[in-house]
Design brief:
The chain has helices spanning about 15-20, 25-40, 50-55, 60-65, 85, 90-130, 165-170; strands spanning about 45, 70-75, 75-80. The chain is mainly alpha-helical. Among the domains are: about 10-85; about 90-130. Strands 1-3-2 form a three-stranded antiparallel sheet. The longest helix is centred in the middle third of the chain and has 41 residues, at about 90-130. The chain starts with 13 loop residues before the first helix and ends with a helix.
């Protein structure tokens, strides 16, 4: 995203004060056109054809901006005074965007790589926890995992979390 930069002392600049006194709408055009120019990477150029789309009936307002020397009349449109002194050029914006895309590509690749490492580590831990001892190997010094105790009333249900007992308890309440 590109920003149209307006100096924080613009409100007290003699050009801005003159335009504001005569035609506040002209300053509105200046701001809207600046935003438009920044978004479209035109380096401060506002074509005649696009002016009505930015602000309807703005031809007279544009003339006032030229008279105040905030804009310059050029072939095919208007040009902001000293645009490139305060705003990035089209090439700077494109270079910044390319650098940002590359940073995000590297960040995502690194996240994916780290996620893959964690996944492989997780899979190895799960295999260790749930693997059955090999029948061909001699007895391990580790004790074989004990099967969980079964509920004496509900065959196949674990004693510590029997669904049948839980259902009976809930039904009795």
């Amino acid at each position: 995203m590109t920003w149209f930069k307006v100096d924080d002392s613009f409100h007290q600049h003699s050009k801005a004060r003159k335009v504001a006194a005569r035609s506040p709408a002209a300053l509105a055009l200046w701001v809207l056109a600046g935003s438009w120019s920044s978004a479209n990477l035109t380096e401060g150029f506002v074509p005649d054809d696009d002016l009505p789309w930015i602000l309807p009936a703005s031809e007279q307002l544009a003339t006032e901006l030229v008279a105040a020397r905030l804009w310059k009349r050029v072939k095919g449109g208007y040009l902001f005074h000293d645009w490139l002194d305060f705003n990035p050029s089209k090439q700077q914006v494109l270079d910044d965007r390319a650098a940002a895309r590359e940073r995000m590509r590297r960040l995502r690749a690194d996240r994916k790589r780290r996620s893959g490492e964690r996944s492989a580590e997780h899979q190895a831990n799960v295999r260790d926890l749930f693997s059955t001892p090999s029948r061909t190997s001699s007895r391990s010094s580790r004790a074989a995992p004990r099967a969980p105790a079964e509920c004496p009333r509900h065959i196949g249900q674990p004693a510590h979390n029997c669904g049948g007992c839980r259902s009976e308890t809930l039904g009795a309440s």
